[in-house]
Automatic annotation (TrEMBL):
Organism for this UniProt entry: Mycena chlorophos
Protein name in UniProt: F-box domain-containing protein
Organism domain of life: Eukaryota
């Protein structure tokens, strides 16, 4: 047998430069650091060929993050290097300087960024307020701006600057919306994320940014803060393009802020003709609050209810009556929602996400929502016994079951056999994902899984099982020989549901 030629180049060195450049250009994080394993500089240390290709790949250097607490001594040289290698692409950057770290050195670094403002595409700026007043002049490529001043009373953001492509703005906690009324191009904004809004500031936002598509705000509603109840700020308002609206409790808000916000101020007079997704994340959510949201229902597709502290009130009440929301198909339940107290048009639901369900609650949902297509649930065992009635989920194609993070690895909290019971049939199932940590799937639970899959006669395409163990690697394929080719052992236990922050 001939020996391999040791002088032949490694396969990775035979990748054409244009292909390698495409690969390397996808490596960096949104805002990569200047140093460390996540820095683009690390790619130049692999070999001379990689270094040459990396240097000539502008997209690899078109984003960066500068933070005062971790800035290297040679900031100016590194910044010049980044700007030179990224030209002529647009720039995306995070620039963060705390008030205590502010110095002429960081101000001169910001001046370098200002000299490149014609290339700004995504800018996230967390600095003392004086920095923002220096953003003057045209910003022809700017699409997204995040404003995080370290002090109140910031003024003159984008003073005299034109930003014709700016559509997304994030307003930090220290931003007072009233002080920016004449600074931002509100009418062209489509996405606004506010970290701290008073009720009356919602009125300012709805009055000026009438082309919003997505709005996500943390409400700081406190007693007596509605000092301006003029018609200009209380409406009525019509947001003809708003499809996603998220209302979240600010950590310092009064407990009943949601009730007060829905009864008074701009939300009370708001018309949303195309609203698709409504998310409410509050300290308390009660039936009386949800009554004020009924006018949003005719076009609603997705409803998310996420009480922050305390369960949804236990008295039975109807959130959406039959026929009131004909397009309603997706529901998200936060951790403290008690589903026994909720009436919904369950039969029209196709997608369900829940952050804390008992097996008995899952079985109830399967009985009342037979048309589910996708179901993602964090499960905690309530140790209830009893033989559940048979149920067939004829349309369910994707099922994700994840252990709730509450209990420790005590056998009394094992829940898998309670969900995959002897009466469950899933004939259309294509994707099944089970993240069982901190438990290990044992032989009895594999038996329950096998019974459900064989009884269902489904054509499973993907089966994820976690945590991966030597036992599971050997036993899963032996117990499920017909599905051996689609079994994937997954060690990750990442968050079940991720929210879009854009």
């Amino acid at each position: 047998m001939s020996q391999p030629d040791s002088s032949a180049p490694s396969p990775i060195l035979r990748v054409p430069p244009e292909i390698l450049s495409e690969i390397l250009g996808r490596v960096p994080d949104v805002f990569p650091p200047w140093h460390g394993l996540c820095s683009p500089l690390i790619l130049g240390l692999v070999c001379s060929y990689w270094r040459s290709v990396a240097i000539s790949t502008p997209s690899l250097w078109s984003s960066l993050r500068i933070e005062s607490h971790s800035a290297p001594n040679h900031m100016h040289q590194l910044l010049a290097l980044w700007l030179e290698r990224s030209a002529p692409l647009p720039l995306s950057f995070e620039f963060g300087v705390s008030a205590s770290d502010d110095s002429p050195g960081f101000q001169s670094i910001f001046d370098v960024f200002l000299s490149q403002r014609a290339r700004w595409r995504h800018a996230s700026i967390s600095t003392p307020r004086d920095y923002f007043g220096r953003i003057i002049g045209p910003l022809p490529r700017l699409e997204s701006l995040e404003i995080h001043p370290s002090e109140y009373n910031i003024r003159h953001v984008l003073k005299g600057a034109s930003a014709p492509l700016l559509t997304r703005v994030v307003l930090g906690e220290q931003v007072v919306v009233k002080s920016l009324v004449h600074d931002l191009p509100w009418a062209q904004l489509t996405h606004v994320y506010g970290k701290c809004f008073y009720r009356y500031e919602l009125g300012i936002l709805f009055r000026m940014a009438h082309n919003l598509v997505r709005c996500r705000v943390h409400i700081l509603a406190i007693h007596g803060e509605d000092h301006d109840e003029s018609e200009e700020l209380t409406g009525p308002f019509t947001m003809p393009f708003l499809r996603h609206l998220t209302l979240i409790s600010h950590r310092n808000a009064e407990r009943r802020w949601l009730s007060n916000t829905l009864r008074r101020g701009p939300i009370r007079t708001l018309t949303l003709p195309v609203l698709q997704v409504l998310r409410v994340c509050s300290f308390d959510v009660v039936a009386a609050d949800l009554e004020h949201l009924r006018d949003f229902l005719p076009v609603l597709d997705t409803l998310e209810i996420d009480p922050i502290d305390g369960p949804l009130e236990n008295d039975m009440f109807e959130i959406i009556s039959q026929g009131a929301a004909p397009r309603f198909a997706r529901i998200f339940f936060g951790e403290r929602v008690f589903i026994w107290s909720i009436k919904l048009p369950w039969a029209q639901l196709t997608h369900l996400h829940a952050e804390c369900f008992y097996p008995t609650e899952i079985l109830k949902v399967f009985y009342v929502a037979p048309n589910l297509v996708s179901c993602n649930i964090c499960v905690v065992n309530n140790r209830e016994v009893g033989q559940p009635a048979p149920v067939v989920m004829a349309h369910l194609r994707s099922l994700t079951l994840v252990s709730h993070s509450g209990p420790g690895p005590d056998d009394e909290f094992r829940w898998l056999s309670g969900v995959l019971h002897s009466g469950l049939t899933l004939p259309s199932l294509e994707v099944l994902r089970i993240l069982y940590a901190p438990f290990e799937i044992n032989s009895a639970e594999l038996g329950c899984l096998r019974s459900v899959l064989f009884r269902s006669e489904c054509k499973l395409h993907k089966l994820w099982l976690s945590p991966s163990t030597e036992f599971l690697q050997a036993e899963a394929k032996a117990a499920l020989p017909h599905f051996a080719e689609v079994i994937q052992l997954d060690d990750s236990n990442e968050s079940l549901i991720e929210h879009d922050e854009s």
